[in-house]
Amino acid sequence: MIESSNLERNGALSNWLQIVISFFFVLCYEAALPLLAGLVAGLLLFAIPQAQEVLAGLLGPAARSYAKVSYQTAHQRFVMPIGIFFFSTLVLSGTNWYTARLLVTVGAEVRRPAGLAGSHVDEYMRAWRTWVPRFIGCMSCSFAIAAFLSAQRINPDQVLQSDILALAACVLPLAYFVLRRRLRLPAPWDALAWFTVLAIVSLLVMTIGIDIYVNWVNWLMWAAPALPTVLLAALTARRSWLEKISRKNITDPADSIPFSATAWKLAAIAASCTIVLISLAMFVGLAREAGSASIVLLFLASITGLLAAALLYIRHLSCGTPGTAWFVVAVIVLIAFVAGEPLGDEAPPPTHAVTEKASEPERSNARRDIVVNAYGGGLRAAVFTAIVLANLDDRSCGEFGDRLHSVSSVSGGSLGVGTYLIARQEFVHANGGKFCRPSKDGSYVPLTNVVSNALLRDHLSPALARLLTFDLLPGHSATRGQALMNSWQEGVEAALAESPNTAYVSSAGFALPLQQLNGGLSPGPRVFFNTTNVDTGKRVWFSNDGTWAEDGSQPHQLSAPLSVGQVILHSARFPVISPAGEIDLDNQELRFVDGGYADNSGATTLIKQFEGDEQSLGWIDLNGNAPDTGCATNAEPDVDAKIWTGLEALLKVRESQADIAIDHLKDAHKNWIFADARFDINAAYSKTYNDDKVRCMAVKRLRSAPLGWYMTFDSYEPMHTSMFDVVAKLCEKLSLSCVRGGKNQQME
Questions:
Q1: What is the Cα–Cα distance from 413 to 387, expressed in whole angstroms?
Q2: Beta strands 404-410 and 581-585: pairing type?
Q3: 576 preceded by a cis bond (ω within 30 of 0)
């Protein structure tokens, strides 16, 4: 009796082991490629702060102007990016499902291990060949939708709702799989039809209200978690649908398929994926319209399709010999390693200026007594730097710019400084030296409008599209740096063209030769753009007086003409989005990376330039990076989420070196009037949230904003608020004749 019981128990255990082993064999061996693509998509969208920022921006108003934002038309602007994101999600899910189906069925009988042969193993393998591809496709959709919903935790009041909806996107398909037979749910066709009807009714009901945009967003948020379940239902019912439509018997999804029956399908998949990749790389407008998240999803779908097609061809040619595919992968990796890292060798950006004639600068008799150092920090530092400098000029009616003596900038700070000076130069030229008219409430801010409109655009998507296409191919120069610089150029050209205060006939934008950058002044302020020499690790600067120098050496005349955009890009080469660059100067090949490696503040260059200079100057320490402290409460300590230790250490070393440089500059020039201009995120949010815990949640979310080239409205809004306080303090500290900012300057 006991022996019989043990035999039954062992038989049940053996049966379960066969089920589990056959499942993991199909999932992790035969369908490993699409499984990896789905997991990578989820990891990228969940774990990378820039991805969460991009996904959050899909449902927010455009952070594109200093003027108020219209929520009433926001849904019209965002229908296309959201639609493309959901389309890209379905493309990745469908690609992963179909490639998994081909990988597990083409030649399946030949590849089955002899050790899995048994009485029930064929039944289990057939079941998993049917459901594993569906699981992979649904999982890919669930991860993308869950990441999208999780990213909407912008408002601390919506955290619980976003988390529940993100969890629902992952749980509902599992519930459908478990309960579909036990509860005898309607056929997938009926379920899909009912869902469509309910969705249309919900949309009509929720759009009957005053605020259409908010209701439309709410409906989308509540409907999105059902998409993976609908996809799973559609994949489950696909065969019966096709049989009804074609009135023919369709091959069972678990049947083994000969390679000859799929050759044309593989060729079609490879061709389609190649067309998608080339389109994203060639058409910048398409890449920007799609958005960074959609580009990543389409890239993963395309590369999965290409690799799956190649893998099946290799299997066929090698007659199923184990390890052949991995050998080919190793050869590809070796070729890429031997070819080396592609470096950027960018040309000046294209310009649409009517004439290349340099604008006539305004001769200024004002005392030049203000110096500025501008920190690096991606687009956030660029925007903060540009709007503070421009608003100082707007509110002082040009007095600030007239008193500007020297500027030293790094990375994103260099982009902000360059944008401000280019815009000011065009304003002076277009208005005969007068670009400002005084206003009692400070509402007239044309220069601030231009720089914010120029920078608050999606500069990430064009560079990312090149990174995931051409720059993956060895043997040529990297192109994503050129795409990034061209995006800056498009932004400043469009902003100047839209402004009623510019004639826009002379400005070449970032294509302007470096020596002609003067901010509309004669003589122009001396500007230093800082970068880092890869081979020596030393700081290198380029100046608008036509010179360059490496730390510890004497200045040299530039032996090759450089544009403003080129030197700013050399300063802003933070990996991975911006490639390392190379340039031929004085008959030597120099390689550059981001200037923040050597000194992220730009202060070290000012120390060298003013060595032994005893004149009294006003000094602006301009930092657009949110501080790491200042938001601790009794209920929650001030501890932020940790990132990878190596990256965290690198960022902390950058910050420490910058602080040391500032301290040295203070010690060297104690007679300077020091003005701290830092983005105070805690103070900005204190005007929005009264509850300390809620405020700290918002602060910590924005602190994790990346050093990337994309910003949402919610990331820009506190920066905009902080700018008013910073400018007011600087006006007082530097004795500028500034008008006060009015209510109509505030973001609405």
A1: 11
A2: unpaired
A3: yes
Taking the C-alpha atoms of residue 723 and residue 184, their distance in angstroms, rounded to an integer, is 60
The number of beta carbons lying within 10 Å of the beta carbon of residue 121 is: 18
SS3 227: helix
Question: Cα separation of 517 and 5, whole Å?
Answer: 89
Which residue ranges form the domains of the chain, and what is each CATH number? 2-313 (no CATH), 362-745 (3.40.1090)
φ, ψ (nearest 5 deg) of residue 178 = -75, -40
Burial class (CB in 10 A: 0-12, 13-18, 19+), 599: buried
Measured CA angle at 266 (ends 262, 269), to 5 deg: 135
SS3 state at 116: helix
Bridge partners (DSSP) of residue 406 are 371, 526
Count the neighbouring beta carbons within 10 Å of the beta carbon of residue 607: 18
Measured N-to-C along each axis, helices 32-47 and 121-150 cross at an angle, to the nearest 10 degrees, of: 20
Q: Reduce the DSSP state of residue 710 to 3 states and report it.
A: coil
Give the distance from CA 697 to its chain's centroid.
22
Half-sphere exposure of 254 (CA within 13 A, CB side): 13
Q: What is the pLDDT of residues 82-133, one digit of tens each?
A: 888 998 999 999 999 998 988 888 766 666 655 555 556 677 777 888 888 9
pLDDT tens string 27-39:
888 888 899 999 9
Decide: helix, strand or coil at residue 406.
strand
pLDDT band at 669 (very low <50, low <70, confident <90, very high): confident
User: Alpha-carbon distance 17 to 694, whole Å?
Assistant: 49
Report how many helices (DSSP H) and strands (DSSP E) the chain contains, helices first.
Answer: 26, 12
Q: How confident is the model at residue 66 (pLDDT cuts 50, 70, 90)?
A: very low
Contacting residues for 129 by C-beta, under 8 A, at least 6 apart: 26, 101, 104, 105, 108, 253, 254
Phi-psi region of 18 (alpha: psi -120 to 50; beta: other; left: phi over 0): alpha
Cα 364 to Cα 402, 525, 527, 574: the distances in Å are 6, 11, 17, 36
Measured between alpha carbons, how far is residue 363 from residues 206, 330, 372, 622 in Å? 60, 64, 21, 26
CA 147 to chain centre: 15
d(CA 327, CA 388): 56
SS3 549: strand
89 touches 143 (CB < 8 A):
no
Preceding amide of 329 cis, omega within 30: no
How would you label 178-210 residue by residue, b for 16+ Cβ within 10 Å and e otherwise?
Answer: eebeeeeeeebeebbeebeeeeeeeeeebeeee
3-state secondary structure of 233: helix
Q: Which two tokens stand for residue 548?
A: 């360059």
Amino acid identity of residue 610, one-letter, is F
CA distance 140 to 134: 10
Which residue type occupies 413?
G
DSSP run (H or E) holding 548: strand 547-550
Alpha helices of 106-158 — where are they, by DSSP H? 108-111, 121-150
Torsion 55-61-62-66 (CA) sign = negative
Contact 137, 96 (CB under 8 A): yes
The DSSP string of 407-440 is: EEEEHHHHHHHHHHHHHHHHHHHHTTT------T
Contact 270, 306 (CB under 8 A): yes
For the chain, report the end-to-end CA distance as a whole number of angstroms. Answer: 80
User: Distance between CA atoms of 666 and 674, rounded to whole angstroms?
Assistant: 8
